[in-house]
Amino acid sequence: MARCVLPWIVASLAALGLAGCGFVGRPERPAWRAQAENACFARDLVKPSAFVVPSRAIDGPGICGMTRPLKVSALDDGKVGFDKTLTVDCPMTAALEAWLDDVVQPAAQARLGQRVVTVNVFGAYSCRSIDNEPGARLSEHAFGNAVDVAGFTLADGRTLLYVRDWKSAGTQEAAFLHEAHAGACQVFTTVLGPGSDVFHYNHVHVDLANHGSTNTGPRRICKPAPQPNLLPPPAAPDSLPPAPEIEEPLDIARHGDPRAVALAPASLAPVSLPPAAIAGPGAGPDGALPPPVGDMDPVPPVLPKGAGYSVDSSPTSSIADHDE
Question: 156 or 301: whose pLDDT is higher?
Fold first, then answer.
């Protein structure tokens, strides 16, 4: 008889317990989460596509879940994929896209000369406590509001991992991972990377938890503190066009070259002299120019007749016969 009653008692107690839970009321998800999802869609921050697919609401267990979840396999119109499909909410999808566009891709291009084509992740939605610790409060993963990023794959096939390359001091690979982490702190409200605690040695956790507000905006948690004075990116190649070839040397001192006049400063412009000053005393417009200076044989000047000059007609031999 007792064997028959005991199960009934246990069942009754369970029913009473369930009834009591129903009477007290089921715990509800904070209202701000659904409000954030709806506002994100209303502002068109995320548009459904072949890579961002709306899914059915996730309601439980407990208060886990989200009102309008998305299945995200890639962002940037499919140009940047995830190595596994993420189940996340609309605000997290929009934040991931902003982080990739504004931080990750520019840093990868500047430091590594490549674009990121795949984001390697450990996971997104999971109804669990923080760090899977028993008794801890629910993680942002339980609401599709967090992603764990393990690394990135570049267009040339290289894969950079936080567990391996984060501490490679003096390399552009490590500097890129640090820059991606530091930039995430400007987009997400929680960023926990290697060095923040023992649970994040191999990835960067990002989420949009509500930590309250400050006078400059939402309160943010960023660990470890971003490193100052990262290795500078390599110098970009000179993108200037090649200098044009000059067909012949430009002799700006050549007499009469109009280019010389065009290039000469105003203070050094050629001075035009009247013909009389060039030809000599008494010369008119047809006066002769001075003999040229150079390798040419000089030509004896022709003296104009009747211009007042005295011409010595004595024989030249008298010069040779004279001796002092």
Answer: 156
Residue 131 has pLDDT above 60, yes or no: yes
CA distance 127 to 62: 9
CA distances from residue 196 to 16, 181, 182, 192 in whole angstroms, order as listed: 45, 12, 13, 6
Q: Where along the chain do its domains lie?
A: 27-223
DSSP for 234-302 reads PPPPP-PPPPPPPSS---TTSTT-HHHHHHS-GGGPPPP--HHHHH-TT--TTPPPPPP-SSSPP-PPP
Q: Is the pLDDT of residue 320 over 70?
A: no
Retrieve residue 37's tokens: 């999802």
- Cα-based torsion angle of the residue sequence 89, 90, 96, 102 in order, rounded to the nearest 10 degrees: -170
Partnered with residue 88 across adjacent β-strands are 70
The token pair at 297 is 């044989």
The 10s digit of each residue's pLDDT in 143-191 is 999 999 999 999 999 999 999 999 998 999 999 999 999 999 999 999 9
Assigned token pair, 273: 């002299």
pLDDT digits (tens, 9 = 90+) for 52-64: 999 999 999 999 9
> What pLDDT was estimated at residue 316?
40
Q: Distance between CA atoms of 125 and 58, rounded to whole angstroms?
A: 10
| Residue 32, φ and ψ in degrees, nearest 5 | -65, -25
Give the pLDDT confidence of 73-121 residue by residue, as tens digits: 999 999 999 999 999 999 999 999 999 999 999 999 999 999 999 999 9
- For residue 96, which of 40, 13, 57 has the smallest C-alpha distance? 40
Helix 172-184 with 105-112: angle, nearest 10 deg: 160
8 SS3 class: helix
Which residues make Cβ contacts (< 8 Å) with residue 59, sequence separation at least 6?
Answer: 65
